[in-house]
Write a structure and sequence with these properties.
This protein is α/β, with parallel strands linked by helices. Helices cover about 35% and strands about 35% of the residues.
Length: about 190
């Protein structure tokens, strides 16, 4: 697992403060300045190595917006469709809302197209405070959706083990980082 494109882009990523929160501005997590095909392929290929160990699942689920490029690449690789948990309410039959609280914001998201008994994997760009992931896993469990695994591109936090234990779902991260002295450190 060399992940040279990902590592180099993380070292070059600007960091801005959002209150006390160190926010890393990166192509995979923000689309800034742009996502190269090489970087996207490198991250999605690494995810695929782990996803193959999950067994059979019906759907890839991601969260708007930056999980979409990863879910798209994985959908093309697996031939499995993906569902996007959206930030917009549509009012469709069966739509379920999710309260999202992160380290720097609070909002609602909406799930359409999933039902009890669906077997899914969850893919997202970043895990830091865990607010979004906890909310989504809680609602999916309440819906009766079976989550076989969670796959995250970049992990910046200390909540992964706790969330995995609470929801009984394995969480795989591609690269784990920390911010020290205003710089990205790869663990």
């Amino acid at each position: 697992m060399s992940l040279e494109h990902l590592k180099q882009s993380l070292y070059e990523a600007p960091i801005v403060k959002k209150g006390d929160y160190d926010y890393v501005i990166h192509p995979i997590t923000d689309g800034v300045p742009y996502i190269t095909p090489e970087l996207l392929k490198e991250v999605s290929d690494e995810m695929m190595k782990h996803i193959k160990k999950c067994g059979k699942f019906d759907r890839i689920v991601t969260i708007e917006a930056m999980g979409i490029p990863l879910a798209s690449a994985l959908s093309l690789d697996t031939g499995i469709p993906f569902t996007i948990i959206r930030k917009r309410e549509y009012g469709l039959p069966g739509e379920v809302s999710v309260e999202q609280v992160t380290g720097y914001s609070k909002s609602k998201m909406y799930i359409n197209g999933l039902k009890k008994g669906d077997t899914v994997i969850l893919v997202d760009d970043v895990l830091s405070t865990g607010g979004t992931l906890k909310a989504v896993l809680y609602v999916l469990k309440e819906m009766g959706v079976v989550v076989k695994g969670v796959f995250i591109g970049i992990y910046k936090g200390n909540c992964k083990e706790e969330i995995a234990k609470i929801y009984g779902v394995p969480i795989t991260t591609i690269v784990d980082i920390d911010i020290v002295g205003g710089k990205v450190i790869i663990k």
